[in-house]
Design a protein that fits this description.
mainly alpha, 0% strand, globular
Length: 287
């Protein structure tokens, strides 16, 4: 002990810092992944669904909420865009599936039910609510920009379109409409990237490490920053699967939502190094 004290040159000497922490930011180290890894997460996540089939009930509930949103907004053009906000808040909604994935990783394959899904919500408490509100707030900002942008760029041209198809038809029929459509696509892409970077592993980090929301978001941003290419591929895969679900009346979302939730946990484990004493490798074999 005396020898250790004599070697300490100042408080917080680097020799005393645990290797599981990033020295610059106080967050766990992030691994580099390959562009193929997101596909592997999907393959593994598909196997996880059938180890915890109760996750399909989670998917059914989320899908039912989506149906309700569509029913309430079917004749209201701008509110109909709310279904796209569903994709943005998906990481917060997936908390129950993430909890099932965490329990499966720990070898708990028996007795997984809806109670385990719901139990994750009070465990995270206000942090989960604030996170969901943050993602919803990003969508509201984009929706407000979209409405203002279309109105300013197409004053006197659009009138009151009956549906999204009519809106797009009018927009592509004039130079100002095409320009406004490009602006919407760019703004939507920026919002999607920001939201994705903020939430890609935030909920898994809170469940696994019991860190604060701020620290979990920092971990998520770090993971995205160090793997921008693979992360964009992962985001693209999520968008494609969600888009296909929307085209088929959200019915595939019953399976797609828990599938993405399990794959999300697999991605977290691949991206973020575990602390000493934590689960380093999943106890379950590859799916």
């Amino acid at each position: 002990m005396a020898d250790n004290a004599s070697r300490r040159r100042y408080a917080g000497d680097l020799e005393e810092i645990q290797p599981g922490q990033n020295l610059d930011r106080g967050i766990p180290p992030v691994r580099d992944i390959s562009p193929r890894d997101p596909l592997q997460w999907l393959v593994a996540g598909w196997g996880d669904i059938w180890q915890a089939p109760v996750s399909l009930l989670h998917g059914l509930v989320v899908t039912a909420v989506g149906w309700l949103i569509l029913w309430l907004t079917w004749d209201q053009l701008w509110l109909a865009m709310a279904i796209s906000g569903f994709l943005l808040v998906g990481p917060a909604l997936a908390v129950g599936v993430n909890e099932l994935a965490r329990r499966l990783e720990q070898g708990d394959r028996e007795g997984l039910g809806i109670g385990q899904c719901l139990g994750a919500i009070p465990a995270l408490g206000g942090s989960l609510v604030v996170f969901a509100l943050l993602l919803a707030g990003l969508f509201v900002v984009w929706a407000g920009f979209m409405t203002l942008w279309i109105g300013v760029m197409n004053v006197g041209n659009l009138g009151i379109p009956a549906n999204l198809g009519e809106l797009l038809g009018v927009m592509i029929s004039s130079p100002s409409g095409i320009f406004s459509l490009i602006g919407l696509v760019v703004a939507g892409a920026v919002l999607a990237i920001v939201s994705f970077a903020v939430g890609v592993v935030t909920v898994p980090a809170m469940l696994d490490r019991r860190v604060s929301l701020i620290d979990a978001i920092r971990i998520s941003l770090e993971a995205f920053y160090h793997n921008r290419g693979p992360m964009l591929i992962w985001g693209g895969l999520i968008t494609v699967l969600f888009g296909l679900s929307v085209l088929i009346a959200l019915i595939p979302l019953i399976v797609v939502f828990p599938w993405l939730g399990f794959a999300m946990w697999r991605g977290y484990r691949a991206l973020v190094e575990a602390d000493a004493g934590e689960v380093g490798e999943a106890k379950r074999g590859p799916a």
